[in-house]
Structures are given as structure tokens and as C-alpha cells.
Amino acid sequence: MIHIGIIGLGAIGQRLIKQFTEHPEVEIVAVCDQLESLANETAVSLGGAQAYTHYESLIADEKVDLIYVAVPPKFHHAIVLEVLRAKKHVLCEKPLANSLEEAQEMYEAAKEAGVVHAMNFPLNYGPGATKFSDMIAEKYIGELRRLQLTMHFPQWPRAWQQNDWVGKREQGGFVLEVGVHFIQQTLKIFGNIKNIQTRLELPVDREKCETGIIATAELEDGTPVLIEGLSQVAGEEYIGFIAYGSEGTLSLENWGQLRGGKIGEELKPILAEDVIPNKIIDELVKAAKGEVSELYDFEVGYKAQRVLEELRKI
Ligand SMILES: NC(=O)c1ccc[n+]([C@@H]2O[C@H](COP(=O)([O-])OP(=O)(O)OC[C@H]3O[C@@H](n4cnc5c(N)ncnc54)[C@H](O)[C@@H]3O)[C@@H](O)[C@H]2O)c1
Q: Key word Repeat present in the record (predicted)?
């Protein structure tokens, strides 16, 4: 049995609690949130896990083997470094950190600690993005001509994520929150991203995050990458990760839906039913037992942060 401690019990922390509780070989033994009522309620709902309001106490709890860090980005650095000092396995929410310097320090410390260090980049475990990646490898689109990421939000922060940080410039914004997932996918599927030129639309209020981005970059072989995003627009939320190739187009939309077509054809839905989705908790358990696993570690988080920080440069 692997004993889990969770720090940060907000929107995403709660989402992963469900996945942890579904795994027969893990038990959540401790939870922590600076909001005492939230820590207590969550502990009760888990049938008597230990509740903490200070992360240091949870990390020091001898029962805990693996710690999931789901606090807002600017707290990842201090908390994860403390976990690594205690030589415990760690799963960290994305983005790895809130600056490149922090991310590098965390990556170096993780390598030295010799523990499992993983990031929660859920696209990698879903059928849609997996099939997108497989079809690119099988040359469904031929040779890539252009890669495009489009992120449109009627409202940012979104209705389900009304907190005190995701709308602020310091550690929020959709480039950081949403863009980082697709930066990681780009690095994984298409390789290095270079020559980043970015133009942000920023509100007059310096505390508030970007409302738009137009950025261009290149893959290692010079293939252009276009990143464009806008919030406070009419219509529905739309996230498109689109690969235009010499023979066709493939588009991963709204996180999991695939559409594709050959040149001259319509874009049609492509089902990913043949792909068996993986689960991050299964992979974490394998890694903690020393088995081969599919995890995206702090090196992946650090490399994504390098691009992320270029994009959010003001
Ligand atoms: N992987 C994904 O798909 C995904 C999706 C959304 C958010 N996230 C990431 O998850 C993290 C959390 O996001 P969220 O939307 O759940 O935020 P949230 O604000 O809803 O929750 C964060 C929680 O952490 C607590 N907290 C803050 N500082 C703390 C501290 N020092 N010690 C203990 N508790 C503390 C807060 O009280 C709050 O309950 C962020 O890094 C975010 O980028 C990941």
C-alpha cells in the first residue's frame, strides 16, 4: 500500500482525490489546506485521514510516502523543495513553478533526491491526445507545415475556477494555465521550440493577467508554430491544437475531440475508441514500486517552463 498526502484541496486537488481513492493500492492518509475547514471536511470525507493546515507537518508525517502538491503555482517551489528534502516521492501540479529559476532548482533537487518526481499533465493519459500523437507519428498529415494553438475563452477566469489567483498576472492567466499543457504536448510530439516572439494583450490594471496573445515560434527544423489566444469574447470556449501537413489536417479540440481530413476533404470527427486510456495514478504506483512507468517528470516540467516563461514575458 502506498500512503498518500495531499497539499492543496481546491478545484484540482479534489479532482485527483477521486482518482486516488479508486486505486486499490493507495490510501490517502493525510490532507492539508491552509483553510482549516476544507482540510477537516476533506479528511472526514476520506474516512479519517489526518488533517493539517501547515504543509510542513504533512511532509513530516512518517505515514506519508508520496505527496501530491496541488496548491497555486507560486507555492509549488517552497513546498516541493521541502518534500524533496524529506526524500519523499512527489507529484506536482503544472506548471512546475512560477519562474524558470524556481523550475530549475526544483528539477536539480529532484534529481539529487532520487525519488519519483512527476507532473500532472493529464492530456498524456487521455485517448484523444494519444491518438493525435500516434496519427502524427504515422504521417496521417504527411509532413508538418504549421502547428497552431488557439485558445478562446468567453470569460477568464472560467466559471469553475473562480479563485483569487488565476485571473492575476503574478501566477495566473490562460497562457500559463492552459497553454502549458499544449507546450508540453508540442515538445513531446514535435520536439524543441525556438525563436519565440510574443505579443501579449494586457489590461491597464497591472494586477490582472493577459487577455490576449499572438506568438510565433519555430520547431527545430524551422516549421512555424503559431499560438493565439483571446479571452472575453463571444461564443463558446474553444481550445484547438491543429497540425497542418502536406497531405492533411489534424485537430485536437477541447482537450479530447479529434477531427481530421486529407487536403480537399471535410474535417471529420475521428474516434479514439481503440486507444486504451492510461491512468496517472496507476503509473505513479508502478514508479513508486520501482517498475517501468509512463510519467512526465520534472525535466519535462522544466522544459515546458522554459517556453512558458518566454511566452509570458512582458
Ligand atoms: N492538471 C490540470 O489539468 C490542472 C487543472 C487546473 C489547475 N491545475 C493546477 O493545480 C493547482 C491548483 O489549482 P486549483 O484550480 O485547484 O486552485 P484552487 O485555488 O482552487 O486551490 C488551491 C488550494 O490550495 C490551498 N493553498 C494555497 N496555498 C497553500 C499553502 N501554502 N498550504 C496549504 N494549502 C494552500 C488553497 O487554500 C486552495 O484550497 C495549480 O497549480 C493549477 O495550475 C492543474
A: no
